[in-house]
Design goal:
single chain, alpha/beta, Rossmann fold, 2 domains, about 15% strand, elongated
């Protein structure tokens, strides 16, 4: 009989989702030890017994001596920047992410932010809080239309591609795509009938050294690139000044990609028209941050990926990767340590 493979799952999968994993192969021994609500998100060493081969969760054990047989970590998150200083990065243990399962909720969320900013919804909400019906409402709320505008996407992964699909097919927007290496195809996990797997939607493609050119042409800019040493603070004063004064920037990636000090200035001094932000350099966003008070900023508490279907999608991706692991196929969303994601 083939050797059994122990899988430790620390995500909050229900019985149906766990059985979905178990159904991949009788060789899999799937053990569920969900982390507690409100856990520190820093370590899972205490959940290991020492015979685990595969781990599923947000954070692998920091004390790797507790997991001497660990061969593969499937992360519950699309990014892996939480592992920047983790000892696992200096090992040969395989690491895969959940990239691809967020395309629908975050793609829709990004478009929602674009619409809300273009039609001045933050201002509407503030007036509602004051029970105020403005006399000059037609002038005050004469917003932009998305139709025919240009959307620049910095990081054309699964989220950027699904946002592009909605923008192109729903609003006839012009799409500009920036990627790290100019690759047009999406080689990661893709849900059926979503996104732009072959890279057919963009009207133009850009490389990182052409960022200012993309920013200068865009009416809306979506930041959807991973956080790496190359993308840290990639949007600063120079980049924000390269944008149109009528343009909006949306960040659903990681807060540290944009310089918040520069962004506050850009919004206060109207270098740009507005910003929709779901992520921040420090989370929760400090109460002292000026971003809270700016009328042209739409603030969300890092919820763009939240969805009732999240766990189902995560289980489906993990099941497919378990199948690939057992058959020796290349895993989906395999982290390349040299590039950082």
């Amino acid at each position: 009989m083939a050797k059994q493979i122990k899988v430790l799952v620390t995500g909050r999968f229900n019985d149906t989702q766990l059985n979905r994993l178990r159904s991949v192969s009788p060789r899999l021994v799937v053990v569920s030890k969900p982390v507690a609500e409100g856990w520190s998100r820093t370590d899972t060493s205490n959940l290991f017994e020492g015979d685990e081969d595969i781990f599923y969760g947000f954070m692998p054990p920091r004390n790797l001596s507790k997991a001497p047989h660990l061969k593969w970590v499937q992360l519950h998150s699309a990014g892996n920047n939480q592992l920047t200083d983790h000892p696992i990065m200096d090992t040969n243990i395989l690491i895969t992410t959940a990239s691809g399962i967020h395309a629908v909720p975050i793609g829709e969320f990004a478009v929602m932010m674009m619409l809300a900013l273009a039609r001045h919804v933050p201002r509407m909400v503030r007036l509602q809080d004051r029970s105020e019906w403005p006399k000059d409402r037609s002038k005050m709320f004469a917003g932009s239309e998305l139709r025919g505008k240009t959307l620049g996407i910095v990081g054309y992964g699964s989220i950027g591609r699904e946002t592009a699909r909605i923008a192109k097919q729903g609003f006839n927007m012009r799409i500009l795509a920036l990627t790290r290496n100019g690759k047009k195809e999406d080689s990661g996990y893709i849900e059926k009938n979503l996104g732009d797997p072959n890279g057919r939607l963009p009207n133009a493609w850009f490389l990182p050294n052409q960022l200012s050119e993309l920013l200068n042409q865009s009416d809306f800019v979506l930041i959807s690139t991973p956080l790496t040493s190359e993308t840290q603070q990639m949007i600063g004063e120079t980049e924000l000044r390269a944008m149109k004064p009528t343009a909006y920037i949306i960040n659903i990636a990681r807060g540290a990609i944009i310089s918040e000090n520069a962004l506050v200035r850009a919004l206060k001094e109207r270098w740009i028209a507005g910003a929709g932000l779901d992520v921040f350099a420090t989370e929760p966003l400090p109460v002292t941050s000026e971003l809270w008070k700016l009328e042209n900023a739409l603030i969300a508490p890092h919820v763009s990926g939240d969805s009732p279907s999240y766990e189902d999608r995560a289980a489906d991706l993990f099941a497919e990767n378990l199948r690939r692991y057992l058959t020796g196929e290349r895993l989906l969303n395999l982290v390349d340590r040299t590039r950082g994601y």
